[in-house]
Structure formats: structure tokens, C-alpha cells
Automatic annotation (TrEMBL):
Record-level GO BP terms: methylation
Name by which UniProt lists this protein: Chemotaxis protein methyltransferase
Enzymatic reactions: L-glutamyl-[protein] + S-adenosyl-L-methionine = [protein]-L-glutamate 5-O-methyl ester + S-adenosyl-L-homocysteine
Residue ranges annotated for the CheR-type methyltransferase domain, each copy included: 6-283
Organism ancestry: Bacteria, Pseudomonadati, Pseudomonadota, Alphaproteobacteria, Hyphomicrobiales
EC number(s) stated in the UniProt entry for this protein: 2.1.1.80
Function summary: Methylation of the membrane-bound methyl-accepting chemotaxis proteins (MCP) to form gamma-glutamyl methyl ester residues in MCP.
Keywords from the named record: Methyltransferase, S-adenosyl-L-methionine, Transferase
Name of the top EC class for this enzyme: transferase
């Protein structure tokens, strides 16, 4: 247990300490901290130093070297993850879901409570799965002859709590295109000026912690996997291993969405590029 202290924190980070942090973050999350991101990592570690009441990053790293630090690893990962996201980010994926995916799935599966499954595989604070839920509710409506669910996972437990709460600063919604904003069916603002996503949409989503480089408990199959803006943090072998597991969980004819600056680590025999960062699983 670490005793809180109130001495000013020292944010210097030695080569050895940086190497230790980079090693732990790579081993436990697959995230590569590249050299130009070291300053950012330092800032984030400094926040953790403050929370623990330590004096310096050096002291924090000394703690990370002890056996007692295993409980701190999830907190370290939470501290270094980049959680930037937005509602309907990279809109073309949501347009594809609306126009090309859901109508076909409804036609195939309605009438016998057929399953439709979407996975948001690095969901951050929830904007991505709530956007998928909003589009899906709009297209599917409340029909009871379909079993529709979204799985939303992330490694970062703090951000998942925020996602599950589904409360966001109201001004975040003001910037949305006029045709999309009403789909989130926001419920009134609280005293902190936050609007809440409608319960009806929240019920469509299960938020769970899942580390993409560890074992996955789900069996699938999924019709759509969102894996956006997380591959950028991984190296090629990590991406390739995850990609194989996505393909195994994707329904033939299902879709994988990557982020705008991402591509497959190498061509995959069962994935065909059919649109901007949209890959279809071939039979
Ligand atoms: C930049 S956000 C992307 C959010 C959303 N997909 C989007 O595109 O807007 C990246 C997310 O990946 C998560 N992440 C990083 N490494 C992960 C891992 N090994 N397993 C699961 N999630 C991870 C981070 O916690 C973070 O929330």
C-alpha cells in the first residue's frame, strides 16, 4: 500500500524508467509507445504519481519494479491509453451500416428471431457503440422478430465506466449533423450540463472489459466488427494475430471496419476491401 504524500511531483523520466514503462505497456496491452509519444506518456504518468501521492515518476517506476505492483498494472494501462473518440466518427461506416448491412440482415433474419451481432472492439467512452445503436434502432425499429445486440469492449476500466454511464457534456451533441443528433434520443440534462443517452439505446449494448491481446470469451459470430483507431497502437505481429481472430469470429459476408489511417497488416485471404476502410469476410 502506498502512503499518500504531499510533496510536489517530479516528472523527469530516465531512459531506464521509460524502457520499463514501455515494456510493461507492450507486454500487458500490446501498445507500442513510440519515441515521439514519450512526452505524452510522461504527462500521463505524472497524473498517476499525483493520485498515488508519490514524489516523482522515478518513485513510481521503482514501485512498478516491485512484486506488489501487479495491482497497479491495470491502472498504468488506464493511464497510458488514448481514448479520443466521437459520436458518428468516420460517418461512412455508419452510412454503410444503415444502407448496405442492416437492410440485408433484416431481410435474411427477421421473422424467426434471427441474431444480429455487432462488436465495438475498442469502444473507449462509448460514442462508437451508441452511434451504432442509434443507427440500428432507426433502421430496425422495435421489431421483436430479431435478436439484436451490440458488444462494446475496451481494456481501460475507467473509460468503460464512463461509457456505461452514457452521460456526455451537452455541447458534444451540438456539433453533430442535424440528421444524426435526434437518433441518440437524448434525455434531459443533469446539473453538470450533461445529456444522457436514452435507456432504450443503452439496453442494446453490453459493455465489458476485454484486452485484445488476451483470450476472448465470446464465440460470435459477429455481423460487423468495429476495430477503429486502436491498430495504430500495435505492431504488425500483434495486428496480424488479432486480425486472424476477427476473421474467425466474423460471419461470412460480415464486415470489419478499421480507422481512417489504418489498413490490414498484410493482405488476408478471407478479407476483401469493398469500401473506404471496410473489409468484407469472404466465405
Ligand atoms: C483512440 S480510442 C478509439 C475509440 C473508437 N474505436 C474510435 O475510433 O473512436 C482507442 C481505444 O483502444 C483501447 N485499447 C488500447 N489497447 C487495447 C487493448 N489491448 N485491448 C482493448 N482495447 C485497447 C484504448 O483504451 C482506447 O479506448
Amino acid at each position: 500500500m502506498l502512503a499518500p504524500q504531499s510533496v510536489q511531483s517530479d516528472t523527469a523520466l530516465s531512459r531506464d524508467d521509460m524502457a520499463l514503462v514501455a515494456k510493461l505497456v507492450y507486454e500487458h496491452a500490446g501498445i507500442v509507445i513510440r519515441e515521439h509519444k514519450e512526452a505524452m506518456a510522461r504527462g500521463r504518468l505524472a497524473r498517476r504519481v499525483k493520485v498515488l501521492g508519490l514524489n516523482s515518476i522515478a518513485e513510481y517506476c521503482a514501485y512498478l519494479r516491485t512484486a506488489a505492483a501487479s495491482d497497479e498494472i491495470p491502472e498504468l494501462i488506464n493511464a497510458v491509453t488514448t481514448n479520443h473518440t466521437a459520436f458518428f466518427r468516420e460517418r461512412h461506416h455508419f452510412d454503410h451500416l444503415r444502407k448496405d448491412v442492416l437492410p440485408r440482415l433484416i431481410q435474411e433474419r427477421a421473422g424467426r428471431r434471427g441474431r444480429i451481432r455487432i462488436w465495438s472492439a475498442a469502444c473507449s467512452s462509448g460514442e462508437e457503440p451508441y452511434s451504432a445503436a442509434a443507427i440500428s434502432r432507426d433502421v430496425i425499429g422495435h421489431r421483436s422478430d430479431l435478436d439484436f445486440k451490440i458488444l462494446a469492449t475496451d481494456i481501460d476500466t475507467d473509460i468503460l465506466d464512463r461509457a456505461a454511464a452514457g452521460q456526455y457534456p451537452a455541447e458534444q451533441f451540438d456539433r453533430l449533423p442535424a440528421d444524426l443528433r435526434p437518433l441518440l434520443r437524448l434525455e434531459g440534462q443533469n446539473s453538470r450540463g450533461e445529456a444522457r443517452i436514452a435507456e432504450d439505446l443503452k439496453r442494446l449494448i453490453a459493455f465489458k472489459r476485454l484486452n485484445l491481446i488476451e483470450r476472448w470469451p465470446m464465440k460470435g459470430p459477429f455481423d460487423v466488427i468495429f476495430c477503429r483507431n486502436v491498430f495504430i497502437y500495435f505492431d504488425t505481429p500483434t495486428k496480424a494475430a488479432i486480425l486472424d481472430r476477427y476473421v474467425a469470429l466474423l460471419q461470412p459476408g460480415g464486415f470489419l471496419y478499421l480507422g481512417h489511417s489504418e489498413s490490414l497488416p498484410q493482405p488476408h485471404p478471407q478479407l476483401r476491401l469493398i469500401g473506404r476502410t471496410i473489409y468484407e469476410r469472404t466465405p
